[in-house]
């Protein structure tokens, strides 16, 4: 999606220079030129993502210098056209693009807000696989989200905290920046010796030469762009393999090791507990990055390796771990359904407390339900945040979890956990919507749950009966 929709239409309508028009005519003799849609069609973030193609793989080669804060990158995208394409967009904010090729031929490009508009020399027919290479560089920085929080490439005193939800991926690589498009990733990241660059998936090794170290990472299972990271810092690294064969890689800022160690020790048991509840852990790698970036103010469930801005408490570890099933493996189709991520991860915290000698989920629910009608908790229903500004607001998390608790009470524990497992397995490495979840819950339980979901997900204000 880009702001210059009129301009883009202009290409087809012939308001572009003669040479370009001639080129398009040659590539598209029928004159039915089609550029990929401006956005993925998400009303909360209309500029996010793009239409007309799917990216199956990103190969990102980056070099970052924490001192000068300069980033150089080469992104190679393996894509497939889902329609005939005379042009398409990538999302990229800031940075300078020095070249774009499509299948090794130089392509024309221009910048338009967060859009990198690419015009390949010849049109791509529908279904055709193609390869895009973008070389770029500059000083990356974060984006400010509608709620005022920062995401993307966030410089720290010893590197960068790189977290992309919902929009920040485009601050450090050209992306089809919407969770609707999931891809595998390779990362090759070079940083000054003494620094560590941590990305998603399996650690493939590192090499030091000429005062620089290059780290290689591979995320094989499909991943939404917002879950990618390339966090850089001075970290203490720990690696081991769990009983279940998961490859764990933890990177911890030395300023956080004392506080983080006792919590990180619990990661294998938390993942085992969640696997019993939700079904097999969806990835082959696991771990954590604990940075010292207190101005960030949140953690992120970066795929296979959540990212914390300081030593997490156990609840936060449980929360980000639960997102590996709910949010990462099962991705959103649209940001409006964000309760499918945050309500579920929050409810996982409640379940963990309940089963580990803490407060029961019912008590959590009751304490929240006791809040007065004017409380922010009741500002909007969990399934309808209204805009991108509210996707991380209290009702998404707390009322989302309350919705699951009400579902559990209505259908009973056996059916409830069958529903959670069926959701995770049926949509593994894929996507889901609220409507698909409510339909699944009804099918598995055999109950009429329309009233319950209508009340908790879609009715404004505090529900009159719990
Ligand atoms: N998904 C994260 C969580 O675990 C929150 C991310 C917040 N991002 C932001 N830009 N404020 O709850
Ligand atoms: Zn969360």
TrEMBL record:
<feature type="domain" description="Peptidase M1 membrane alanine aminopeptidase">
    <location>
        <begin position="316"/>
        <end position="456"/>
    </location>
</feature>
<keyword id="KW-0645">Protease</keyword>
<keyword id="KW-0482">Metalloprotease</keyword>
<feature type="domain" description="Aminopeptidase N-like N-terminal">
    <location>
        <begin position="56"/>
        <end position="227"/>
    </location>
</feature>
<comment type="similarity">
    <text>Belongs to the peptidase M1 family.</text>
</comment>
<protein>
    <recommendedName>
        <fullName>Aminopeptidase N</fullName>
        <ecNumber>3.4.11.2</ecNumber>
    </recommendedName>
</protein>
<dbReference type="Pfam" id="PF17900">
    <property type="entry name" value="Peptidase_M1_N"/>
</dbReference>
<dbReference type="InterPro" id="IPR045357">
    <property type="entry name" value="Aminopeptidase_N-like_N"/>
</dbReference>
<dbReference type="InterPro" id="IPR050344">
    <property type="entry name" value="Peptidase_M1_aminopeptidases"/>
</dbReference>
<keyword id="KW-0378">Hydrolase</keyword>
<dbReference type="InterPro" id="IPR042097">
    <property type="entry name" value="Aminopeptidase_N-like_N_sf"/>
</dbReference>
<keyword id="KW-0862">Zinc</keyword>
<dbReference type="InterPro" id="IPR001930">
    <property type="entry name" value="Peptidase_M1"/>
</dbReference>
<keyword id="KW-0031">Aminopeptidase</keyword>
<keyword id="KW-0479">Metal-binding</keyword>
<dbReference type="Pfam" id="PF01433">
    <property type="entry name" value="Peptidase_M1"/>
</dbReference>
<dbReference type="InterPro" id="IPR027268">
    <property type="entry name" value="Peptidase_M4/M1_CTD_sf"/>
</dbReference>
<dbReference type="InterPro" id="IPR014782">
    <property type="entry name" value="Peptidase_M1_dom"/>
</dbReference>
<dbReference type="GO" id="GO:0004177">
    <property type="term" value="F:aminopeptidase activity"/>
</dbReference>
């Amino acid at each position: 999606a880009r702001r210059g929709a009129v301009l883009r239409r202009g290409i087809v309508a012939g308001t572009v220079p003669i040479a370009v028009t001639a080129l398009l005519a040659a590539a598209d003799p029928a004159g039915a030129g089609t550029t990929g849609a401006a956005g993925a069609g998400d009303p909360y973030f209309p500029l996010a993502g793009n239409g007309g193609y799917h990216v199956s793989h990103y190969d990102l080669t980056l070099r970052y210098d924490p001192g000068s804060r300069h980033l150089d990158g080469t992104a190679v995208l393996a894509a497939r056209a889902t329609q005939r394409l005379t042009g398409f967009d990538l999302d990229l904010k800031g940075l300078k693009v020095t070249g774009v090729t499509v299948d090794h031929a130089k392509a024309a490009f221009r910048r338009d807000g967060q859009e990198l508009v690419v015009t390949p020399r010849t049109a791509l027919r529908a279904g055709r696989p193609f390869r895009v290479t973008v070389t770029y560089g500059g000083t990356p920085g974060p984006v400010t989200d509608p709620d005022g929080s920062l995401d993307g490439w966030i410089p720290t005193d010893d590197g960068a905290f790189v977290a992309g939800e919902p929009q920040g991926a485009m601050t450090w690589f050209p992306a089809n920046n919407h969770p609707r498009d999931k891809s595998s990733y390779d990362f090759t990241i070079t940083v000054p010796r003494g620094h560590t660059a941590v990305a998603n998936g399996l650690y493939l090794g590192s090499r030091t030469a000429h005062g620089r170290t290059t780290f290689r990472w591979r995320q094989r299972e499909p991943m939404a762009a917002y879950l990618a990271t390339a966090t850089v810092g001075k970290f203490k690294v720990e690696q081991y393999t769990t009983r279940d064969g998961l490859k764990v890689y933890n990177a911890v800022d030395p300023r956080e090791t004392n506080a983080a160690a006792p919590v990180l020790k619990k990661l294998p048991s938390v993942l085992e507990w969640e696997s019993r509840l939700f079904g097999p852990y969806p990835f082959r790698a696991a771990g954590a990055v604990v940075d010292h970036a207190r101005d960030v103010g949140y953690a992120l469930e970066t795929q296979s390796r959540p990212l914390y801005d300081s030593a997490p408490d156990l609840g936060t570890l449980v929360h980000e771990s639960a997102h590996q099933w709910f949010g990462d493996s099962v991705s959103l189709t649209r940001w409006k359904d964000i309760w499918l991520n945050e309500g579920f991860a929050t409810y996982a915290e409640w379940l963990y407390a309940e089963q580990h000698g803490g407060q029961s989920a019912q008590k959590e629910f009751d304490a929240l339900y006791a809040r007065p009608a004017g409380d922010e908790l009741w500002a909007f229903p969990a399934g309808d945040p209204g805009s991108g500004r509210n996707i991380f607001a209290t009702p998404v998390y707390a009322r989302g979890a309350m919705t699951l608790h009400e579902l559990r009470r209505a259908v009973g524990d056996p059916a409830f956990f069958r529903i959670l497992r069926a959701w995770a397995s049926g949509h593994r490495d894929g996507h889901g919507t609220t409507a698909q979840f409510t339909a699944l819950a009804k099918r598995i339980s055999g109950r009429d749950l329309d009233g319950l979901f209508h009340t908790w997900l879609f009715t404004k204000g505090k529900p009159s009966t719990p």
